[in-house]
DNA sequence: CTTCCACCGGAAGTACCGGTAA
DNA sequence: TTACCGGTACTTCCGGTGGAAG
């Protein structure tokens, strides 16, 4: 124990792992200069006592939307204090505060208003918050992050009320910034809301591998001891994350986990191998998450494919369906139709669990050739947990339960 | 050039479930 | 408490298709 604890007290690699966490806002945001500038221009009018234009921000996960907004608004409010032109901003994540009631209570809470957490109607909460905000001449900026997590009618209600709140205010003014991952989100928004909130728009493009490298290097300086991350490790983190739509959050996760693995192994340095291990770990988590929420028949389809692959053949839809029926019968379940299985295959493909390549074999028809693209041993682990499937797996797939497959599926090295 | 395989994938409809408004 | 709504999982029916074989 003593050894373990003293090791924890004297970490060999990390200085501060917090800077690799997704909610950390760094002092530098590489490759977002442009967005910072235009957001800065939009909100700067607040310093003159004007309401900034309402704004919608789009961009995939890990493109720095939240970071840029927090970064700019933090500096704005600092500046406003300096010049005694009070600007206050509220950050609200609608994944957590996912009803209009909670959004308004949160605004109240953040502005220092005491509210009973229950017993009031939404309208009453709105009224109290509004009056409280209006008690002073001030500019407020409300940031609503992950808007797509609000239910459709909820988002209409919140945004509509917020958009019109200025009509009821005499002293204060409120500007709104809405952030969403989903470009289509705005399409199915109430038309009135859309027009009043979409005064300005910004799009955050994904990062490419080189930009990700810069971001990682910047953070690695703060997170790790000097010279304890190899250049290759960073490059691979960036390349792996760039491969999936340039998600900086993912790149940072990879680097953090790789660091933790390196630390656990008591290595001197974070190396390529640690990144690959981290990748496998994250990938495994993802697969478990995905497969465990899959509908029952989808799992059986996957199980069928697994069985066939273990027998080593090119699997087509038709053959898969045969095996699927066979397994269903053994398990005593009603099979679904081939049409449905065809859709299930497409769904699994979209989730990245398998690949389906359409081939034309002329006289012998047109079909899809199926391949599992995740580690089969992870799948088996999951299937073993399922009481209905478990027996079957133990009986029919015992050859897969051995370790022979385990290592043959490691991440293929990527070409830098 | 035609045929024809083994599917693909669109359209429309049913059954069921969980959540919400009345 | 109940009627209603929207989403998901699934059917049934069927027209469409690229290219090897004839």
> Which CATH architecture of the largest domain would you pick?
3-Layer(aba) Sandwich
Give a quick account of the main beta sheet: strands, pairing sense, barrel closure: 5 strands, parallel
CATH structural fold name of the largest domain: Rossmann fold
- The helix count comes to 17
Classify the helix fraction into a percent range.
Answer: 40-55%
- Give the SSE order as H and E letters: HHEHEHHEHEHEHHHHHEHHEEHHH
Distance between the termini: 41 Å
Structural class given helices, strands, pairing? alpha/beta
Strand content: 5-15%
What's the overall geometry? Answer: globular
Total discrete domains = 3
Number of strands: 8
Give, in spatial order, the strands making up the sheet with the most strands: 2-3-4-1-5
Secondary structure layout:
Blueprint: H1 2-9, H2 33-44, E1 55-59, H3 65-82, E2 87-93, H4 100-111, H5 122-133, E3 139-145, H6 152-164, E4 173-180, H7 191-197, E5 200-204, H8 209-223, H9 231-243, H10 248-264, H11 272-292, H12 296-310, E6 315-316, H13 317-331, H14 338-350, E7 354-360, E8 366-372, H15 376-385, H16 387-396, H17 398-401
This protein binds a DNA duplex (22 and 22 nucleotides) through residues 295, 297, 316-318, 336-340, 342-343, 346, 358-368.
């Amino acid at each position: 124990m003593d050894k373990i604890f003293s090791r924890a007290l004297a970490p060999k690699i990390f200085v501060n792992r917090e800077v690799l966490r997704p909610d950390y806002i760094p002092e530098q945001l590489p490759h977002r200069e442009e967005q910072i500038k235009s957001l800065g221009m939009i909100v700067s009018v607040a310093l003159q006592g004007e309401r900034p234009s309402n704004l919608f921000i789009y961009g995939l996960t890990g493109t720095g939307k939240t970071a840029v907004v927090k970064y700019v608004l933090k500096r704005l409010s600092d500046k406003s204090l300096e010049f005694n032109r009070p600007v206050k901003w509220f950050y609200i994540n609608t994944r957590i505060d996912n009803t209009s009631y909670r959004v308004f209570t949160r605004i109240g809470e953040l502005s220092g208003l005491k509210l009973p957490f229950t017993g009031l109607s939404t309208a009453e909460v709105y009224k109290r918050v509004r009056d409280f905000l209006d008690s002073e001449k001030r500019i407020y900026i409300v940031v609503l992050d992950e808007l797509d997590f609000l239910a459709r009618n909820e988002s209409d209600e919140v945004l509509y009320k917020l958009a019109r709140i200025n009509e009821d205010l005499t002293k204060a003014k409120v500007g709104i910034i809405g952030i969403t991952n989903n470009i289509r989100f705005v399409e199915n928004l109430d038309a009135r809301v859309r027009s009043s909130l979409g005064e300005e728009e910004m799009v955050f493009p994904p990062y490419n591998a080189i930009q990700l490298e810069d971001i990682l290097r910047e953070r690695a300086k703060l997170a790790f001891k000097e010279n304890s991350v190899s250049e290759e490790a960073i490059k691979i983190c960036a390349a792996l994350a760039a491969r999936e739509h340039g998600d900086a959050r993912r790149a940072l996760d990879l680097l953090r986990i790789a660091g933790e693995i390196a630390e656990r192994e008591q290595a001197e340095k974070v190396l390529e191998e640690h990144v690959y291990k981290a990748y496998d770990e994250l990938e495994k988590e993802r697969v478990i998450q995905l497969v465990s929420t899959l509908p029952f028949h989808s799992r059986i389809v996957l199980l069928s494919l697994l069985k066939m692959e273990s027998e080593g053949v090119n699997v087509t839809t038709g053959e898969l369906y045969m095996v699927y029926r066979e397994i269903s019968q053994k398990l005593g379940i009603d099979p679904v139709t081939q049409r449905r299985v065809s859709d299930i295959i497409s769904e699994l493909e979209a989730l990245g669990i398998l690949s389906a390549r359409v081939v034309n074999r002329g006289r012998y028809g047109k079909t899809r050739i199926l391949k599992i693209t995740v580690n089969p041993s992870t799948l088996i682990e999951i299937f073993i947990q399922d009481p209905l499937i478990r027996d079957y797996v133990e009986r029919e797939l015992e050859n897969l339960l051995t370790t022979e497959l385990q290592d043959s599926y490691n991440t293929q090295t990527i070409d830098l």
